[in-house]
Amino acid sequence: MRMRRIGVCLAVAACAALGTPAVTGVGAPQAHAADSKVLRVAVTTAVASLNPFLAYHQADTEIGRMMYEFLTAYDQTDQHPVPGLAESWQVGTDKLTWTFKIRQGMKWSDDKPITAKDVAFTYNLMLTNAVARTANGNFVSNFDTVTAPDDTTLVVRTKQPQATMLALDVPIVPEHVWASKVDKLVNYTNLDFPVVGSGPFTLVDYKPDQYVKLKANPNFWRGKATVDEVDFYHYDNTDAAAQALIKGDVDLVSKLTAAQFDTLKGKDGITTNKAVGRRFNDLIINPGAQTNTRQPIGDGNPALRDVKLRQAIAQAIDAKTLVDKSYGGYAEPGSSYIPPVFSKWSTNQQRTFDLAAANRTLDEAGYRKGPDGKRLDKEGKPLTLRLIGDSGQPTDNPNGQYLKSWLGQLGIPVDVQLVSGDKLGDVTTAGNYDLSFSTWGVNPDPDAVLTLQTCAALPDAEGKSGTTETFTCDEQYDQLYKAQLSELDEGKRVQEVKQAQQRLAELATSVTFAYPDQLEAYRSDRFSSFAVQPNPGGVITGQNGYWGYYKAVPAAAGTSSGVTPTGLVIGIVVAVVVVAGVVLLVVSRRRKSTADERE
Amino acid sequence: MTSTTPAAITWRRRRAAAATVWRQFLRDRGGVIGLAVLVLIIGLALLAPVLTDAAGLDPTQATGGRLQPPSGTYLLGTDELGRSVLLQLWWGARISLLVGVLATLVSVGIGTLFGVATAHFGGWVAAVLTRATDFFLVLPSLVLAIALSTVLDRGIFAIVLAIGVTSWPTTARLVRAQTLSVESRPYIERAWALGAGHLHVIGRHVLPAVLPLVFANTTLTVASSIIAESTLSFLGLGDPSAASWGTMLNSAMLSGAVTFGAWWYLLPPGLAIAVIVLAFMVCGRALESVLNPRLRER
Fold first, then answer.
1. Matching Pfam families, A to Z (chain A) (predicted)?
2. What is the ipTM of this complex?
3. Which of A84, A152, A263, B175 is the most buried (most CB within 10 A)?
4. Average of pLDDT values for A25-48?
């Protein structure tokens, strides 16, 4: 028993030592017939929910965008709002009444017509059902009424002017399917294959932690996609995914590390894409977690309620070094809350790394140093902080080590803990952290990420129905948030959004330190090009839209039969040679023996 | 020095026995080599703070480039943050050994306690303890250890505890068998007849007879504990601030060193694990064959 266990363990260690990634070969992608054009994508994040009302993780919404068209879409080139289900729109003189013209003749994937009634149903469901507001509630919280006077007209009346009316990231669902699911929405998984949708692809199969399969939707209003099928295969880590790309098991890989990207750059049959990312990576500092009824929750260090301490921590983070080292240079140093890719909204306000200033801030704020050089909090107790990160994020460990060192130089010992992504989510939602790494993707319209920092985003007593990132709740920030939301003059709105970000920087509950580049690679022997957003320099995966998958161009026939068949042929030849050799050997032996016996 | 008090006689006899064991151990060449390797590695690990500068482990002090192959400055190359792999390997030995030894102490402690108690007391105590042992014996220990280290707060001691409480049943079985065999001997019966209590019998007769075997078993358990620690750390359950060899492998995998082909980052910790485990194994086997009369070649 023990020996066997040791054997297994040794095998694991040996695998590790020999550099074979510990891949769980779940649902290893199969080679497809040459005539069907299948795009195989490796993903490393697990799908949490495919119910569009509950899905807000990036892995989920990315698939959601392929399944459901929105009212408006984002342009592939510069991400301005373009027609989606609505072909045109106008706002009344009162700035409160929006009339959308829904395109005629569109059909769901089950051939039923798509009408304004479906859109009205979706929005009204969100207005009346709290569960339906889980993922995208911020878009409708200001809606007064939504009506569909006829099949091609949608009228939305808002309580206050709303700036995000052309950026409503709400998947529109078919009323004829969802009307019966309303009562048990929270438990509805939306996995009745094929899932009726309006987007360029239809969900046809899903196995948790193995794969998600989508087939091209022939009824999609822009026309059928160039590929017939998009399959997402789950890999446990990006190294396994990178190996799968090299072997030709998958066609597209994203979220590569710097080392993997540099390696893939030189490989035959592989093209790399260094894309400017739309995510920010930040350190969140627990300012005293509370519920939406202002009940304190969690076990965050109370010392962090002091804004001075948080600001000192922010001063002690050298974004430039993190970018150069942890990200291998493949990132932009963090400054404002909104990434510079959205240059209109970004303040681009650089934070200066200054340990001396941070030390002064702490001295002035009354954090004395004890005899051992460690800071004491205001009650005279030693100040130590826990920093929690995701063990599956390649950059969290190095970032944690750097922060530990810098904060250590301020006299604040940091205990770095890395946990699984699931546990990290639980811990931060419950407020059981002092410092934690976090990351969010930003949309062309900044409202969705700005709303994360409002009091309204605080969770309820069960820790649910709140999307708060940092447990920030600040009156001044909330006013700026509301002001920008109801500002239809874009120039003024930009100013208000920037002010809101400045306020956030003062509060120092979220310290943005990097906007990682999205490092992608694809098999150019199977796909000649992908549509990137924004164009040029943008991403293939994780877009504000479906362009990357929708416009994927398969390589011309002939070149597509790349690695696998060649390997197969060589394998067959080798096998034939070996078998023939063995047969010859056996036959000759037998001849000899019979000959010997005959003698 | 010919003292004739009973204690002195006992000690002289023990010294003589130890000398015999040592002589027999020296005859096993593999065991001696294993011991030499262990002494070397443990010595180097203990002397790490004297011989090297721990500041090199701090990424903010690192001077090397990302994933540089071995060179004159960095004999085993650098990791993804430009730190010397050799230095990490050196300091990683301390964590790997510390966790291995501590976990073994926990495991062997529980195992000995359960084993002796099961065999000595018999009856319902034995029934309960045997069932408990069986329960832990059938549980897949790696899975249990993963579950435990997920629930417990992260850190070295979580790993120690996770390994310790999952790997004791084999020791308990071994000790139980040896205790049963010892207690059936006539001198134990004589001790009972002379009015000895449980404490006397266990402390004076059973433990001294069982401990050599436990000691040999300990050496083997350290090997599997180090493997278990490396496995858990490789799976990302270790303490990121106290890097062990398993943690190094985990960082190598996460940073993409495998795809990069950075063998200097993968092979050293992998080989180090293999070497130290092998050393503990041969040492333990040699010791076992000396101390366990059944394995002794006559």
1. SBP_bac_5
2. 0.79
3. B175
4. 71
User: Averaged over A435-449, what is the pLDDT?
Assistant: 89
Integer Cα distance of B92 and B83 in angstroms: 13
Amino acid at A585: L
Contact check, Cβ <8 Å, A400/B240: yes
Residue-averaged pLDDT of chain A: 85
Distance separating alpha carbons of residues A467 and A450, to the nearest angstrom:
11
Disruptive mutation site among B254, B271, B275, B288 for chain A (greatest number of A CBs within 10 Å): B254
SS3 state of residue A373: coil
Residue B95 and residue A242: Cα distance in Å, rounded? Answer: 31
Q: Minimal CA–CA distance to B202: which of B125, B123, B117, B293?
A: B117
Displacement of CA A582 from its chain's centroid (Å): 54
The answer to whether the CB of A485 falls within 8 A of the CB of A509 is no
User: What distances in angstroms separate CA B65 from CA A324, A396, A508, B241, B265, one per listed residue?
Assistant: 10, 19, 32, 21, 13
Backbone angles phi, psi at B70, to 5 degrees: -55, 140
A90: buried, middle or exposed (CB in 10 Å: 19+, 13-18, 0-12)?
Answer: exposed
Measured in angstroms, the CA of B37 and the nearest CA of chain A are apart by 19
- Token couple for B180: 């049963």
CA distance B105 to A404: 31
Q: By C-alpha distance, which of A146, A95, A106 is closest to A125?
A: A146
Could you give phi then psi for residue B42, rounded to 5 degrees? -65, -40
Gap between the Cα atoms of A519 and A273, Å rounded? 6
Which of the residues A235, A247, A263, A432 would you substitute to probe the B interface, choosing the one with the greatest number of B C-beta atoms within 10 Å? A263
Residue A44 burial by Cβ neighbours in a 10 Å radius (0-12, 13-18, 19+): middle
CA–CA gap between residue A486 and residue B227 (Å, rounded): 60
Q: Rounded distance, CA A50 to CA A189, Å?
A: 6
Instruction: Please state whether the peptide bond connecting residue A534 to the residue before it is cis, i.e. omega within 30 degrees of 0.
Output: yes
Confidence of residue A583 (pLDDT cuts 50, 70, 90): low
C-beta atoms of B256 and A21 within 8 A:
no
Q: Cα dist. B239→A175, A294, A339, A382 in Å?
A: 51, 35, 32, 22
Beta bridge partners of A290: A296
Instruction: Kindly state the helix (H) or strand (E) to which residue B263 belongs, with its residue range.
Output: helix B263-291
Highest mean pLDDT pick, A44-53, A97-106, B11-20: A97-106
pLDDT in tens, A260-313: 999 999 889 999 999 988 889 999 999 988 888 888 888 999 999 999 999 999
How far is the C-alpha of A60 from the C-alpha of A82, rounded, in Å?
A: 23
Report yes or no: A243 and A23 within 8 Å, Cβ to Cβ: yes
pLDDT reading at A576 higher than 70? no
d(Cα A214, Cα A531) in Å, to the nearest integer? 18
Round to whole Å and give the CA distance between B256 and A261.
9
| Residue of chain B with shortest Cα separation from A422 | B150
How far is Cα B224 from Cα B280, in angstroms, rounded to an integer?
9
Looking at beta carbons, which residues of chain B come within 8 Å of A401?
A: 58-59, 81, 240-241
B43-54 CB burial, b ≥16 within 10 A, e <16: eebeebeeebee
Length of chain A: 599
* A433 vs B181: CA distance, rounded Å: 54
Q: Which 8-state DSSP code applies to residue B59?
A: G
β-pair partners for A206: A212
Work out the minimum CA distance from A390 to partner chain B, whole angstroms: 10
- What does the block give as tokens for A437? 């790494």
